[in-house]
Amino acid sequence: MPVYQVTTAADLLSDEQRQQIATEVTRIHTSHTGAPELFVNVVFSEVPAGRTFTAGERSQMSFIVGQIREGREIEVRQAMLAELSAMWIEVTGHGDRDLLLAIQENDSRAAMEAGLIFPAPGTEAEWFTENKDKLVALGLVEA
Amino acid sequence: MPVYQVTTAADLLSDEQRQQIATEVTRIHTSHTGAPELFVNVVFSEVPAGRTFTAGERSQMSFIVGQIREGREIEVRQAMLAELSAMWIEVTGHGDRDLLLAIQENDSRAAMEAGLIFPAPGTEAEWFTENKDKLVALGLVEA
Amino acid sequence: MPVYQVTTAADLLSDEQRQQIATEVTRIHTSHTGAPELFVNVVFSEVPAGRTFTAGERSQMSFIVGQIREGREIEVRQAMLAELSAMWIEVTGHGDRDLLLAIQENDSRAAMEAGLIFPAPGTEAEWFTENKDKLVALGLVEA
After folding, report:
1. Phi, psi at residue C114, to the nearest 5°?
2. At C11, is the pLDDT very low, low, confident or very high (cuts 50, 70, 90)?
3. pLDDT value at A88 more than 90
4. Mind listing the pLDDT tens digit for each residue in C48-102?
């Protein structure tokens, strides 16, 4: 965690754009929060054309919804939203007219990766130290 | 925001039913909350048959999950659930036996559309006034 | 509710594994919470290979996200996460290196199944008694 889910109409994005977006989402999240890159997941889902409606009519809306660990200041979350929106325009060439972004919070104590409960925001260094043996064994960090 | 995600088995719904459901979800949300139609998104996702289980056995469950801006009274949310459930029966011809609905709340300060942070519930009019130039330029409201 | 959403790359799981996972998720949730089996839904979604990124690079991450009724002790949620993670290793033969799990809470008052608002955790028996006629009519419980 975080998990950023990007949902678009089918074929809106190319493989290259998906890679660029994943790189940028990871950079934006880690630079604003100090979270380790290893925690940042981006998943791209598609729906067939014609399956998204806005104001009751078929639309071209895309969605970026980030599930992040609870506890980031609202100013941090809003700065990430602004940067994600600007990134979308630059990478896709689409405007921000048809993009909805949301950041949702999840109790870090109720999320797990590699069999380990996530640390609270700001306590990542201690977590890596405590769990170093397992993380090295899994190849997730260097010895 | 809101975003209502409708998840069903593949081919449960026709294009016409999807349009009807989108129209009705939009009407139900705006009439109960006073939110503008422009904010209401409906997305239809499908999973292949046999990918949904209830009580450990394959089921025909469909799901309507609405992510709405935080702060609506519980009575409003429950009235929307009841009306959505009744609408489902009428539009699809299926009963409510295999329909699960949920409304989740998202901090309006942590959601963005058209590059703009959403207003809190009840402050939409001020928001449209403040952001009129951009919204007109995007063609989202009339000049 | 709960709804457990399992998201993987396409073809990671077989039909038999999906059935086993659904059975085990249902057992784990009911044994830790006392919730009735009837409430437990598991949905399997897939994304094409190459659509999941971790630390900015393509990854094989799978996701199990449970939306449960609000109010379970954190110890209960963490015990479920640990057991779900161990179950994943056993059923899939994959390690827990590429599995992210999260449990999210939803206000039980804002969720509905079979046209009925869900009971709060711990009040299921009263709910079944109050709604017995409808539940029997729908074939969801025995007379």
Report:
1. 55, 30
2. very high
3. yes
4. 999 999 999 999 999 999 999 999 999 999 999 999 999 999 999 998 899 999 9
Residue B119 and residue B127 in contact, taking contact as beta carbons nearer than 8 Å: yes
Interval A43-84: pLDDT, tens: 999 999 999 999 999 999 999 999 999 999 999 999 999 999
Q: Which two tokens stand for residue B134?
A: 């951009």
Going by C-alpha positions, the residue among C4, C7, C9 that lies closest to residue C25 is: C4
Q: Which chains touch A (3 or more CB pairs under 8 A)?
A: B, C
Tell me, what's the pLDDT at A143?
Answer: 85
Q: Give the separation between CA A83 and CA A87, rounded to whole angstroms.
A: 6
What mean pLDDT is predicted for residues B6-22? 97
The answer to whether the beta carbons of residues C50 and A32 sit under 8 Å apart is no
Determine contact, residues B30/B37, Cβ cutoff 8 Å: yes
Cα–Cα distance, A96 to B113 (Å, whole number): 7
CB B5 within 8 A of CB B64: yes
* Contact state of B55 with C43 under an 8 Å Cβ cutoff: no
Interface residues of chain A, partner chain C, Cβ below 8 Å: 1, 3, 15, 18-19, 22-23, 26-27, 37-38, 40-45, 67, 106-107, 109-115, 117, 138-140
Q: With an 8 Å Cβ cutoff, are A50 and B15 in contact?
A: yes
C115-136 mean pLDDT: 95
**C112–B104: do the CB atoms touch at under 8 Å?**
no
Average pLDDT over residues B69-74: 96
**Secondary structure (DSSP) of chain A:** --EEEEEEETTSS-HHHHHHHHHHHHHHHHHHH---GGG-EEEEEEE-TT-EEETTEE---EEEEEEEETT--HHHHHHHHHHHHHHHHHHH---STTEEEEEEEE-GGGEEETTEEPPPTT-HHHHHHHTHHHHHHTTSS--
Q: pTM score, two decimals? A: 0.97
Residue of chain A minimizing CA distance to C52: A43
- Describe the crossing of helices C74-92 and C15-33 by its angle, rounded to 10 degrees: 160
- The b-or-e profile of C4-16 (16+ CB within 10 A means b, else e) is bbbbbbeebbeee
Q: Do C99 and A114 touch (CB under 8 A)?
A: yes
- The CA distance from B44 to B6, in Å, is 5
